[in-house]
Amino acid sequence: xxxxxxxxxxxxxxxxxxxxxxxxxxxxxxxxxxxxxxxxxxxxxxxxxxxxxxxxxxxxxxxxxxxxxxxxxxxxxxxxxx
Length: 82
What we know:
By secondary structure, the chain is of the alpha/beta class.
């Protein structure tokens, strides 16, 4: 059985299959083991029941960072420690 990770990203759908681990934008929230938000936190990160993470290569202070451009992301950013 594979470990399935739902990927929320602002770009085109994508699936990465590494055998035992599959990351995909095509999974539903109810069939995955974890949530990964790429570039900007998706509002689902606040309500997802399992492990959830947000990844970006942009610093939080960068003006073009996804949090500033993604609706609904501000509550998540504000919940992070300074």
